[in-house]
Design brief:
mainly alpha, 4 helices, about 70% helix
């Protein structure tokens, strides 16, 4: 993976509740979004990499399930994470 631990800490700090908050839905959604963007760029130049395409679909599904969870639990947190334009989530 292209992210090192310092970059992950920055993501968790920005979208989670702190540096060590790795389990909140917002932090996980942000991390998945960065990974999805990276895999999408990879697939643009390697369109026959079917294993990566499968992994990308799985990540998109995981992110979608977390977003659905947030809708059910707290609609305001969902709206806040969707409003983050740098994550690239459309809804």
């Amino acid at each position: 993976m292209h992210l090192n631990s310092d970059e992950k800490v920055q993501i968790f700090e920005k979208y989670g509740k702190g540096k060590t908050d790795t389990g909140s839905p917002e932090a996980q959604i942000a991390l998945f979004s960065v990974r999805i963007a990276h895999l999408t760029q990879h697939l643009k130049s390697n369109h026959k990499d079917y294993t990566t395409a499968r992994a990308l679909k799985a990540l998109v599904g995981k992110r979608r399930r977390l977003l659905d969870y947030l809708i059910k639990k707290d609609i305001n947190r969902y709206r806040a994470i969707i409003a983050q334009k740098e994550l690239g989530i459309r809804k």
